[in-house]
Write a structure and sequence with these properties.
11 strands, EC 2.7.7.60, IspD/TarI, about 35% helix, seven-stranded mixed β-sheet, alpha/beta, 7 helices, binds cytidine-5'-monophosphate, isoprene biosynthesis, ISPD_synthase_CS, Spore Coat Polysaccharide Biosynthesis Protein SpsA, Chain A, two-stranded antiparallel sheet
């Protein structure tokens, strides 16, 4: 099944402690978001890539896209204040398609196997998201005192890509916007409509480049792939 991917890329460098959009930071001389784009450029099932970008960064991002020979970028939408706004702007801009994948441009190490499973599952059931089992013990606390140790067997760390039938996600995103609901991922918007969201087990390599030490992990992952 072919799919369209929507990549929110309109964030900042705040948690990365960078003075520019962290996606423009380089790992071994190549901007982070180009690694992400290359995964989809090379996936034969990916029909089109759409990017949500800040208005004043569009020119530099477009230049990189051209310089690195990324041919599947079919359009850009203007990013918003929140990631959810950026994703919605993109969803409203893309031509309707069967399955749409939403993926953080800041996660360059997504495995092709996970993308394929997500697309299949979303086609079958409507909604599927990438996740890995929680490794650490998780506790709740109030005022610095533990109130509960949560059963880890039921906990997942949620990543992107998140894959959906296009109409389903568009409706959920527009309903959330209308009702002033702000979620932390796309799945939440679908869950609140009472629809099931399926998990596809992903890899721990699919880290989001968020804080400075993530760049160290990123370089280590790239090194390990050279061997
Ligand atoms: O900040 P964080 O790393 O969680 O953002 C995840 C992804 O969403 C990044 O690729 C970032 O560029 C994007 N984003 C966006 N619009 C925003 C905030 C984040 O497109 N307003």
């Amino acid at each position: 099944m072919n799919y369209t991917v929507v990549l929110p890329a309109a964030g900042s460098g705040k948690r990365m402690k960078a003075d520019k959009n962290k996606l423009l930071l380089e790992l071994f001389g190549k901007p982070i978001f180009i690694y992400t784009l290359e995964v989809f450029e090379q996936d034969p099932q990916c029909e089109a890539i759409w990017l949500a970008v800040k208005a004043d960064e569009r020119a530099i991002i477009e230049r990189y896209v051209n310089d690195y020979g990324i041919t599947k970028v079919k359009g850009y939408a203007q990013g918003g204040m929140e990631r959810q706004d950026s994703v919605r702007a993109c969803l409203e801009a893309v031509p309707p398609c069967g399955v749409v994948l939403v993926h953080d441009a800041a996660r360059p190490f997504i495995a092709s196997r996970v993308i394929a499973e997500l697309v299949n599952e979303a086609e079958k059931t409507g909604a599927a998201i990438a996740a890995v089992p929680v490794k650490d013990t998780i506790k709740k606390a109030a005022g610095g005192i533990i109130t509960e140790t949560v059963d880890r067997a039921q906990l997942w760390m949620i990543q992107t890509p998140q894959a959906f039938r296009y109409e389903l996600l568009l409706n959920a995103a527009q309903a959330a916007h209308k009702e002033g609901f702000l979620g932390t991922d796309e799945a939440m918007l679908v869950e609140r409509m009472g629809l099931p969201v399926h998990i596809v087990e992903s890899t721990y390599e699919n880290v989001k480049m968020t804080t400075p030490e993530d760049l160290i992990y990123g370089k280590a992952i790239l090194e390990s792939r050279k061997q």
